[in-house]
Design brief:
By secondary structure, this protein is an all-beta fold. The chain has strands at about 35, 60-65, 70-75, 80-85, 90-95, 100-105, 110-115, 120-125, 130-135, 145-150, 155-160, 165-170, 175-180, 185-190, 195-200, 205-210, 215-220, 225-230, 235-240, 250, 255-260, 270-275, 280-285, 290-295, 300-305, 310-315, 320-325, 330-335, 340-345. Strands 1-20-19-18-17 form a five-stranded mixed beta sheet, with no helix packed on it. The chain is globular.
């Protein structure tokens, strides 16, 4: 993720904090890893049915980082129905359960834009830390957590007032955040510290830290809350970290994994892998890659994921597209042309 460690994969599009990373500290703690050998694509990789084209409903929101815009896509037709201004260098995006508000992290202005979906206009800009990147609503929707990559903090926004209610110091260069199913714990991937900050959302303090490889960027929590799936970008692997024990299992996925997501049924985890331009499908039961879904040649740069019961959505920074995958057949059903350097994706 950072040029200090390795050159950018693919197209060279800007990713968060590429000039921020210091040399990783040896004081983070010992990471316990049981390495899973690189597994071949299994013949039983699930392809049980034809793609359920057009079965999804609602709207898909994608930030276009270099265009300063937000694309609004009809999930049923895969057509872009609106392109609206979204602030400076928009990255992470989140939408409320009622679909009335969309929150966009503007890494270029240290603000979070609040979009009213009724008229697709920004109604407020909330000042947060420097280079806000990841953004996630708590399960109850009452708070929004924002990772500030250059401030090494997380801003907590009260969604009723759209004001910052807390600022939490975390590790270096935080990128993404995910919550336990009950919302009591937030896990922040600190790419510059090689760990996860585990935040008690009740006290809004870091309760402990979990070692998480060389460059943890994407993080997702299993439905039972027992494991965190962490994209360890420069190590070309996904780490399965026990949320209680801290023990980690390494799953090789290819060069440049940036994001992870868990399927709604808890059977599979998905990782967007920049280098080969694909999505790795990981069996949660045995921590092995059971298949890959090709999205394009090197330079496609699949980046961030959003998974629903109806579809898997992946932004492709290099190709300037959004890929839609049927979660049942694991086949690509649509590729949607967007703006320059699509980054975050959220679904209403």
């Amino acid at each position: 993720m950072f040029s200090a460690l390795r050159p950018r994969v693919g197209s060279g599009r800007r990713r968060p904090g590429r000039t921020l990373r210091p040399v990783l500290s040896a004081g983070i703690g010992v990471l316990l890893i049981s390495c899973t050998p690189t597994a071949p694509v299994h013949k039983d990789f699930p392809r049980p049915a034809a793609p359920t084209r057009g079965s999804a409903s609602g709207l898909v929101y994608v930030t276009n980082q270099q265009d300063n815009t937000l694309s609004v896509i009809d999930a049923a037709t895969y057509k872009v129905v609106a392109t609206v201004p979204a602030g400076a260098a928009p990255e992470g995006v989140a939408v409320t359960k009622d679909g009335r508000r969309v929150y966009v992290a503007n890494s270029g202005s240290a603000r979070v834009s609040v979009l009213d979906t009724k008229n697709n206009k920004i109604v407020k800009a909330v000042t947060v830390g420097k280079s806000p990147t990841g953004i996630e609503l708590t399960p109850d929707g009452k708070s929004l957590y924002v990772t500030n990559g250059r401030s090494n903090t997380v801003s907590v926004i009260d969604t009723r007032t759209n004001r910052v209610s807390a600022t939490i110091p975390v590790g270096k260069s935080p990128v993404n955040v995910a919550f336990s199913p009950d919302g009591g714990t937030a896990y922040v991937a600190n790419s510059g510290s090689g760990n996860l900050s585990v935040i008690d959302t009740g006290t809004r303090r870091v309760a402990r830290k979990l070692s998480a490889g060389r460059s943890p960027v994407g993080v997702a929590i299993t439905p039972d809350g027992k494991s965190a799936y962490v994209a360890d970008e420069v190590a070309a692997r996904v780490l399965v970290v026990g949320t209680r024990s801290g023990k980690a299992t390494a799953v090789p996925v290819g060069e440049g994994p940036f994001d992870t997501a868990i399927g709604p049924d808890g059977r599979f985890a998905y990782s967007a892998v920049l280098g080969p331009g694909n999505v790795s499908v990981i069996d949660i039961g045995n921590h092995r890659v059971v298949g890959t879904i090709a999205l394009g040649p090197p330079g496609t740069d699949p980046f961030n994921l959003e998974v629903t019961h109806e579809a898997i959505y992946i932004t492709n920074q290099g190709a300037g597209t959004l890929t839609v995958i049927d979660p049942h057949s694991h086949q690509v059903v649509a590729t949607v042309a967007l703006g320059a350097s699509p980054y975050g994706v959220a679904v209403s």
